[in-house]
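Problem: given the chain below (704 residues), write out its structure.
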Amino acid sequence: MIFVKEETANTYDVPFVGALKPYAHQIVQQQLIKEVIDQNKKVIIWNEAMTGAGKTLANYSSLLYDPHIKALGIYPVNELIKDQYRSVQKNLPLKDWEDIGIWTADELKKRREPGQTTIEQLAESMNPAFRLILSNPDYLMLITQERFHSYKKGEQPALFYQLLEFQLQIFDEFHLYHVAQMNFLLQWMALLISVAPYKPFAFLLSSATPRNEFFALARNLGIEIWRVQDKVKEWLDATKPPLFSKRTYLEPLQLQVKSSNLRQWQTAEKILENWSDVEEYLFQYPKAKGLVILDSIHEAQMLASQLREKGYEVGEVHGLSDRQKSEIELGKQITVATATVEVGVDFQGDMHKDFLIFESRSAGSFMQRLGRIGRGSCTKPNPPLHVWAYVPPYVAERINNQISAQVTRSELKDLIMQSYQYYQDFLPYIHKVGGMNLVHHYHLIAKHQLEMKENPILANIKQTIELLYGEGFESQRTRYEQLKQEKILEPVISFRGQNTLESHLFRLKSRRIDPEHLETFYPDVWFWDESIPEAPLKKYDFWFVLRRRVVRFITKEEMIAKVKERFRGVEREDHLAALQNDYVLGYAVAMGIREKPARLHWKLRSSVSKHKFQVVRIDRLSLEAPEDPWLNQDLKQLFHFAEKKSWVAYMVNLSIWELSDLLRLPPMFRIYPAKKQSADWSIAFNSEAFQLWSIMERVRSEVL
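Solution.
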């Protein structure tokens, strides 16, 4: 048993937000933002304060002292946007005329006036009344790449230029972005400072686990990087502010680290094996409420079912649960969830949790999940908080052998970071295709800049691309044109590697985008889950649906007929619009859960050998399930496409296990088994295809 001490920090009697007495990092960050704006600088301000230490107010309090500042908050998941909106509304006393824009598909739909387009709605939320916009990064991509509509020659993309007025740009939970997404956000910053060199920008990064490769690239731009925690001591020594109180912001807890074979997806079994530990805790504290976080939806559903059989009230929150009922599910005695609750859920009030059980495949995941409970001010919480963490055997052994009986969260974090094995960081991806987004923006901006012999904005973008990636603009543009000619550019210029968000904004027939986008592989299946009659229509990753569900494929028209029969009113129209606009692998009825996962693989033609170790656009792929004749027959019918369908893919003549071990691929990296005749291969799609290609280029000559 490890006792993790509470985390405390001093608050000071200095002006901040209303009567609130700030932590040092909050007031220091506010002053740093003021310095950036007043002195017309461009600076990355990095705040690594822990969970629960008031980073939201540190980010947005500047809106109160300067009425000219506008802020753009970027968050990787929509649940976090909703959480930040609630927090800002509660703690930031904006004036009556000031408003907050929320750019998520659901919120925009709720606020849309009859006949109003998405373009008009976004433009409206950038008028002077809106001091703050909260968005996911997809909207930045859609705006900068002009994917909302095509512009007439010489017409300026108004939405992008309006975003230049947001001097304060916040990127929260930065550790959650993978390398391609991190690179996209860096290019966003680079684009802003190139197009608006005369404007100040304060780029705020809020993360307790920074990405060192990001800072290395940012320094290439010549942007200053200010670390808030380095400036705190200077402020305390220089101003000697009056102390107000010492405040506890993370409560103490008891931690047990347990070994589990995570690679074989056996954590749910381990939790049930050790459930007597939880029963003992609940015997002492029968009103205690708990949270279980697993990586697999299937494991989460199975564990929830078995805990219900034991007599517990169990809620479920994951990608296939009804999100409208998530607060009810989180309020139950035990909630079994997936990574969907890692951010954006405030476990307070009816949703408070006293014990936590989680599995963790990486150090960042461990600390993120540990931070889900204990965000309060009690030095002796009742009942006492208890955490069971299931980790790989080598991690459990090192932690349990080296850790003290009592530790601070900082000491625990250091040991956790040291204990997990190093995983591939995909830096070669940045060096190979990192600049493609900026080259793409260069061509777009060139269309609506004044025609002159030497345009300073275009010159700035060229110089920025060269500084950022250490490679000449022309050579990068040549690579861009080559990828475009081969029709494999799309995954490296879109934020998530595939533009699924676009399908929610436009009808296919009215899209004015390259047909290549429609051919790009979208690995999802719309399915009708007959076991959940209140919310049967779902869309999820093909690999999960086909491996874990007993399915019967149907046509798109049959799915539409089911929707028309089951739903009414606005809900019906929304579902029909989503089905009409989407471009997915297929449509199915899910009739139950498989006892054992189906064994699937992608079937490769013999001619793919010439494409080995290359990112290519390929057709005539198909899925097989050789041990399940019924599913296999359905898959044959599914892949008899009447229309052309192709994929951006990377193929290697190694099994996924060999490849993962060879390259130290991170957990949850999307790579699939494939077969060429009887030989084991691996295949990856879209962004993962490029990431895999980038690192295989480095090791091929050494290993293969």
